[in-house]
Design goal:
Elements: E1 9-10, E2 13-14, H1 17-23, H2 36-98
Antiparallel strand pairs: 1-2
Amino acid sequence: MVEKAVPKRKGGRLVGLARRASLYPASSSQAPYANPMILEELHDKDERIGALEEQNTTILSEIATIRSENATILAELASQKKFNAEIMQKLDRLMSSSS
């Protein structure tokens, strides 16, 4: 966010943004203090997040593969069930015609 102070004087004092800007002078040459321990912790957490994201991607890929395999197995089971039902009908016809 960038603020631009437009000084307006009211009774000898600055008001509005001009007053606020004058209370907190901004200097781009001053870098904020960064605690090295906090920066190291942030770096470690970033690495951990990256590793977890990679692990998550691997797990999601494995789940997709398993779902595909399960769908194939279910289709094979349905086909086998249909085949078994046909065999049972043929056996029933044979048994009823032989008696």
